[in-house]
Amino acid sequence: MLRKITLILLAITLVVGLCATAQAGPIKLKFGSYERDQGWMATQVFKPWMDKINADGKGIVQVEYYGGGTLLGGNPMQHLKLTLDGVADMTLVPYPYHPGRFPEVMVANIPFAAKTALEGTIAINKLYDMGLLSGFKGLIPCCLFVQPQFHLHTTFPTLKPSDLKGKKIRTAGKMQQVLIEAAGGTAVAMPITQVAENISRGVCDGTVCEWLGQTGFRINDVTKFHNNVSFGGNVMGVAMNKKKYDSLPDEAKAVLDKHFGMSFSKAYASTWDGAIKEWDEKVGNDPKHQIDNLDEAQLQAWKDKFQPAVKAWLAADPKNVKLLEVYNAEIAKQRK
Question: What predicted TM-score, i.e. pTM, was given to this entire model?
């Protein structure tokens, strides 16, 4: 009788364990972003990427998207901290919003360097692989990419640097701030989610931004003049809480590792380059907007104004010289 009872208890324990495992299902990871659910990055990049992870990780690991600040709030500047604190498992990080933590990413903001997101993205990943980028303690970079070139989008024409005198221009990151001030304007730092409202209220007169940010956050509704002078491109990326990653079973890590790194970074950049070309043409054909594609003489006037700021950045830290040398060299390789 005792033996029968023991076998019954063992059977019950096995069934309960199997049921618990079945009920637990895959490990669910929370991706928090300020990009709304139906925004361009969410629909064209993040969700397709997550779909691939979720297909490969069926029953093992799944990623869920929480957009529009529903998980981390509406201020992109707080998303990194909240992810490090474990509120989300991964998030979209605009690295120039944290210049004290990620100083080296400013290399991508050097004007007139990369021409496309793909060029900059491959180069910035090379810098990371070489150990030249700091600040990633506690993080797993799921991808690193350089946005397409930032330009000037304003409520007034800006053909020459002197046109910025007395004007307040929103910037995202230290280098953009320095470049705007070198050209004669006043830099105003704020997250992209607040730009359209502040321009409409007269808090600032324009912004440094790339085309998708212009359209995705309705900045085109309040800026009609667009100057294609280069302000470099900001480094962004999806980053995961390292403690969370380390806590995962090996089979879950294997699924994620397959979709992290250069392949994701290049896909992100290529998709963005294609969309930029489309939006550039669309806005260019809109009679309500004026796009100024500057000639060589006009561009040189901007380069002359920017050069002291670039030299000051190079002189501020000896490693900045190597950063720019490697960054430019990787871009040159791609153009051969």
Answer: 0.86
